[in-house]
Amino acid sequence: MRVLFLAHSFPRFDADPVGSFVLRLAVALRSAGIEVLVVAPGGPGLAARETFEGITVERFRYAPRRLETLGYTGTMRNQVQGSWTARVVMGGFLAADFLKALRVGRRFRPQLVHAHWALPGGLVGTWLRALWRVPLVITLHGSDLRLAQGVPIAARLFRRVLTRATAVTTVSRWLARDTTALAPPVEPVVAPMPILPDLFRPGGARPPERLLFVGKLNPQKGIVHLLRALTMMRARPTLDIVVGVGSVEDETRALAATLGIADRLRWHPLLPQAELARLYREVTALVMPAVDEGLGLVAVEALLCETPVVAFESGGLTDIVLHQRTGLLVPPGDTATLAAALDELLARPDRGAALGKAGRQHALATFAPDAAARRYADLYRTALASARA
Asked: What's residue 358's pLDDT?
C-alpha cells in the first residue's frame, strides 16, 4: 500500500525532534507493508528532496525565503492571526502544498492520503481526496483543535474538513472527546504516534533533586506555574529547561530573576533526541504543568526512560500519567498543589523510581512502534475497503 503523508512539521535533519513522531510512524508502517512518502514545507537550508531512515520527504517552497516562517517555528497560529502578510503567505502555503502533492502523486500514485493536523494539511487533503478519489485519514495532534476552539472561522473550517475525511484519529482520548463536542458528526479513533523505546531507555544514576521541563515557554505549557511552584517548595531542587521552538526566553528569565531562583535553573536549547534521552536519564523527574495538551509525547519519552512525571490533570496527559501509578497528577493551574506534589515525590525513599518503572511498561504497551503500525495499517485497510464499497 502507498500512503502520502501531509505534514507542516517534519524533521529537518537527523535526530531533529521537530515533527519526529510523523517520521516514527512512517518508519514503523514499513513493517506492515506500507510505503510512505511525505510532503512538507521548505525552510532555510532545507533541500527540496531528502531521505530520513529510508523515508523520502518532498519539500515545497511557498514564499520568498525571508517569509517562509510558518513551518517549523511553532508560531503558525500567532503569525496568521496577527499579520495580513502571514495570511497571504498562508494562501501561498496551501497552494504550494497542493501543487507539490499533485506533482508527487503522478509519480508515487498514492492509494490513501494521511494528513497530520486538520489545518492546514487536512484542508489540502480534502482537495486531493476529491480529485484523486482516494480515502483521506486526518490525525489531530492538539494544536489544530485549540485553534478551532479559539477562533470561530477556524472552527467552521475545522468541522468542514473533518466531515470530509474518510476517518479521523486523535492521539488521546481527551482530544477525541473535545473533537466530537466541536464537530458532533465526527467520532475519532484514538491512535497515538509511536516512540522509539530503544533510544528512550532507562539507565544511569539519578540525583535526588533535579527537575526537568521540556517545551515552549508559553502559558499553555505552564512554565510560569512551575517557576512559582519552585518558590513554594520545602526542597530546593534545580530545574533544567529545554526550550521548545517558537519560544522567547526573556520574559521567563526575567521572572526567574524576580522570584530569586535564577541560580537554580539550567538552560538548554532544543536538543537532538539522543541528547534529550540522556537528559531524561539524568534527572529525578519531569514536570509538565501543561493545560489542554493534545497528548504530551515528552511525558511518554520520559516514562520510557523510567523518569516519573508530575503533571497537571489536563488534556491527553491523563492517558500517559496515571496518578500514583506512573506519576502524579494535580489540578490544572493549582501552583501550590504542584509544589506540594513535587515535595512529596522528592521526599519518597526512591524519589519516584517505582513510578518510573511502571511508566515504562505502560508506555511500551501503548506507544511501541509495532503497536502503532498495526493500528494505522488496520485503519488504512478499513478506509480502503469503505472507499471501494
From this structure: 97
Tell whether omega for the bond before 289 is within 30 degrees of 0, i.e. cis: no
Residue type, 356: G
pLDDT tens track for 336-370 = 999 999 999 999 999 999 999 999 999 998 888 99
Residue 169: in which H helix or E strand, if any?
A: strand 167-170
What are the structural domains of the chain? 2-192+369-388 (3.40.50.2000), 210-366 (3.40.50.2000)
> Within 13 Å and on the Cβ side, how many CA atoms surround 166?
26
Alpha helices in 133-272 (DSSP H): 143-150, 152-163, 173-182, 223-232, 250-259
pLDDT at position 92? 94
**How far is CA 267 from each of CA 83, 125, 214, 333, rounded to the nearest angstrom?**
31, 39, 10, 24
Residue with cell 531521505: 51
For every residue of 200-211, DSSP letters joined together read: S---S---SSEE
Exposure string over 238-275, b if 16+ CB within 10 A, otherwise e: bbbbbbbebbeeeebeebbeeeebeebbeeeebbebee
- How distant, in Å, are the alpha carbons of 146, 255, 261, 343 from that of 231? 30, 12, 7, 12
